[in-house]
Write a structure and sequence with these properties.
The structure is a homodimer of 347-residue chains. The first copy, chain A, is of the alpha/beta class. The first copy, chain A, folds into three domains: 43 residues, no CATH class; 127 residues, Rossmann fold, CATH 3.40.50.2300; 135 residues, 3-Layer(aba) Sandwich (Rossmann fold), CATH 3.40.50.2300. Helix content of chain A is 41%, strand content 17%. In chain A, the strands form three sheets. Chain A has a six-stranded parallel beta sheet, with helices on both faces. In chain A, helix 5 crosses helix 12. The longest helix of chain A has 18 residues. The radius of gyration of chain A is 25 Å and the shape is elongated. The termini of chain A are far apart. Chains A and B meet through helix 4, helix 5, strand 2, helix 6 and helix 11 of A and helix 4, helix 5, strand 2, helix 6 and helix 11 of B. Strand 2 of chain A pairs antiparallel with strand 2 of chain B. Chains A, B: InterPro entries: HTH_LacI, LacI/GalR-like_sensor, Lambda_DNA-bd_dom_sf, Peripla_BP_I.
């Protein structure tokens, strides 16, 4: 650091002297996870505060193999599920004493961003709602950088995938529609080339089939509200209209409720039952009361950060899939309770 | 770096030799903003790719006074305005060749997070939707770390505040209500101790007053949907009910429309006009068609990143307020057009 940084000249030795503790006690007080007594920590913090000392993470990274930086790549924060997932993930990374270097990239193309993150020597890389090219997977493996994918299952080596059990939850929605007497049951897909959309369709079909029903029709809404409007118009314009639609996320399901009411004059759930996925805040709003699947975001990010910590310590080859149990939340849009949220275990 | 990192041993010299260019050409190819011909860049990238070389930002930061890291502190990503602002800000930081270290903190308490960011020697600190304590302001100034606040105006030294012109836009909504013949006009505040909520109330009152009207009633909704539900019930339960409500953000305005229709059987805009702030995606949904203010997020983040770049180069003391012109978007909730969005300059 140049002389421009006034506080750069205060060292851990100065803090140790003023606090009356050892140099290594100062170091431990500023190392995430290291033990130091409460009394010593208080002395160190008081002295550091008086002197304006701050530990230098960059200098430390030259003497350890860690930067305490975690690279996070995400996308489409206009989707509330992605935004909430990012917030909880960053909070969990903070709690573990690390910091998130966050990049935005496309769902499918992010090689340049990953390159940039590797140049910061991140301890690990977390991909949420996005994929990893096989070329990048090789580069991460060569540099021993662990990669954790959240909400995507990636068929490449050296990766841990953390997702909710998309198939189980989607099967539960299929069975719910059949039990409620619906017979013309449709599916609205998200981005067709994502594992989440494929797994939800597979599970939904399996649930229907288990009770002797089959899929009536389907359309692609690309996980967006606009895409949902278009796909809902397509499905509802059919000469034999569906009487139930499972949308692969809430944004598309909310759009479907609007289109059914405004463009087709339908009653939800009377004429058309609608279910979504994500249990976003808007699903609980009085206008929608949308049945949805809670993916358990806190459980997903906790698992992801545990995997980071294990991988940073072990630096081993890994390829694992972690499945988080989701919860079905039934509301009025499928004939569920009018106002009280009754979380129901996916059955 | 330890020997665990395989690619750490490939140097810029290796890349220069393979690419047949000078060592300094390799360095320039990886320095944001530095000039290098397209042909040379292609050679360097091909060689770097073959060798698995990546520039080491940490080593570089020891020889320059920069880390190319920008600290970002934000909050409440369940508010779509905050989520979209964060996405655009990170994208703009990426475009400028830097990376965002992102933390989540409370609206009012974030000292510990700022401390942590300073330990990463960030080039600058950006606060979105959150404040800076005067103690921290002193620490940032002492370390010569420039601070940029977005969507908050902070009354402390050494800070650039970038906000939309909250007063101008709010005055336009006040005048719109009066021109549409409304006489019992209410305000729903956000977080009472934020500059955005205070500026919007001040502007709204000024707009009413300019056309000879005064505020009928007000309530506090704390910028959240739940808070908006409570505040709307409070305002609409009054024996003399308001016939127009300006809510300081869209989340509260959407809640107000739901409460007016579902709990009080009112027609919007017939019985009650509602306007919000942020022009979030949901404001355009068919169910709401909500009049709102577009804050021009791209303009805000562009200004913020320009301020970062100027501050990093100049390292001067600064205290400035940048005002971005907002746009009023009139929709059905105030008697505006039924389906086509007509952005109208705040007049």
């Amino acid at each position: 650091m140049t002389e421009q940084s006034g506080s750069g000249r205060i060292t851990a030795n100065d803090v140790a002297r003023l606090a009356g503790v050892s140099r290594s006690a100062v170091s431990r007080a500023f190392t995430p996870g290291a033990y130091v007594s409460r009394d010593t920590r208080a002395k160190v913090e008081r002295a550091a505060d008086l002197l304006g000392y701050r530990p230098d993470m960059l200098a430390r990274s030259l003497t350890t193999s860690r930067t305490f930086l975690v690279g996070v790549i995400t996308t489409h924060l206009d989707n509330p599920f992605y935004a909430t997932l990012l917030q909880r993930l960053i909070e969990e990374i903070q709690r573990a004493g690390m910091a998130a270097v966050t990049f935005i990239a496309d769902e499918t193309s992010n090689d340049e961003r990953i390159s940039q993150l590797l140049s910061y020597r991140v301890d690990a890389l977390v991909l949420t709602n996005t994929s990893l090219s096989s070329k990048m997977s090789v580069r991460c493996a060569r540099g021993d950088t662990p990669v954790i994918a959240i909400n995507r299952y990636l068929e490449v080596d050296n990766i841990v995938s953390v997702t909710c059990d998309n198939e189980l939850a989607s099967a539960a929605i299929g069975k719910l529609f059949v039990k409620k007497g619906r017979r013309r049951i449709a599916y609205m897909a998200g981005e067709p080339d994502t594992s989440s959309s494929r797994d939800r369709e597979r599970g939904f079909r399996a649930g229907l089939s288990e009770l002797g029903a089959t899929l009536h029709s389907s359309a692609v809404g690309n996980y967006s509200h606009d895409g949902g409007v278009r796909a809902a118009r397509e499905l509802l314009s059919s000469s034999v209209r569906p009487d139930a639609i499972f949308c692969a996320n809430d944004l598309m399901a909310l759009a479907t409720v609007d289109v059914a009411r405004k463009d087709f004059g339908l009653d939800v759930p009377g004429d058309l039952m609608v279910a979504g996925f994500d249990n976003s805040d808007a699903a609980a709003w009085a206008t929608y009361r949308l049945t949805s699947v809670d993916q358990n975001i806190p459980g997903m990010v906790r698992s992801a950060v545990e995997e980071i910590e294990a991988a940073v310590v072990e630096r081993g080859r890994m390829r694992r899939r972690v499945l988080i149990p989701p919860t079905l939340v039934e509301r009025e849009s499928t004939g569920g309770p009018k106002s009280i949220d009754e979380p129901k275990y996916g059955s």
